[in-house]
Structure formats: C-alpha cells, structure tokens
Amino acid sequence: MMYQKALLFGDSRVAAQVLAPGLHPRKIKALGRKVAGFDEATWVQHREGIVRRGNVLKFTRAVSCEEAPRKGTTTAAAGTPHHHLRSNKTKSGGGGGGGGGGKSDHGAVVPPPALIQDSLREMLMATGDREIVEASPYDAIWGIGFTERDAEAMREHWGENLLGKALMEVRRELRESQSDKN
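Structure for NADAR domain-containing protein, as requested:
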C-alpha cells in the first residue's frame, strides 16, 4: 500500500525505500506518512482500489521465495501483516512434489511459490462468510479502532475497517471466480 501511495504522488524516493528488505511494518507506515506531494482528497479517492488490487495479487499470484511471508512482516503488494488472517484449518503434507522452494535468508525452508500462494488463498477462504476486521486500537480507518477483545462490545463505534472490507471483497471475487470455473 505504501509503495503504491508513493507512486500515486510521484515520490520515487519513498517508493524505493518502502521496498527495502527487512523493514518493520511500522517503518513502512512511517515512510508512507512522508510521501512528498501527498493530497488527502486524492488518496481517499484511490486508497481502497490500491489495497483491493494489492490483495487480489496477494491471493492470486505465486510469490517468489524472496517475497515469502514471514511472521510479523508486511508484503509490499498489500501492506498487511500476514498474521491477521487466522484459520483453525491445518494442512498436513509432505515436502511435496515439484521443487521450487528453498531456504529463506533466516535459514527456514520456504515452500515453492505456488504453495505459498495457495496457502494464503486457503487462509482467506477458510474465513467462510465471517466478517473480517483489522482489530487495531490505533487505526480506525483501515481497522475498527478497537482490540479484538473489545471489538464486539464497541461495535457501534467501529472505524471504517477498509482493510477488512477489501479482504471480504477479494474473498467474494475469488469465490465467484472459482464457481465460474466449475
């Protein structure tokens, strides 16, 4: 999201900084606040489409090993930490079939790109028809503005939850796409 935000306003310097390896999500968010030429009205007009498209890419295209999600990291495409989607569904299986995996820079075995993409999609689809929210007490635009613990009690005061809405829209599109194939 922050990469696309920088590009929207023509700030190639911040766009390049956002893509630097190993940045903490807070640093990426801080860089997004430094985009030169930022205009709130323009951002509001484009932000939901940017995040929706990033999430479509996140859940539909294979990622390279370098792009493989690591706990607590953020993807450039969507700008969302991977640990926000949780599923009770577990998938077991061997190291499976066709190679293409490798080791991450942390020494962990990284599955082949297609398996990463499939597992991300499975996590999203495993949410069923449940409402998806970003339960962040610090963000009432992309999230609900409350913790997971306080969410239901404060429902009438929720923020915009734009990230949750984008994820639910992508989930709907993926479901429709799958039913069109069947």
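Residues 127-182 form one domain.
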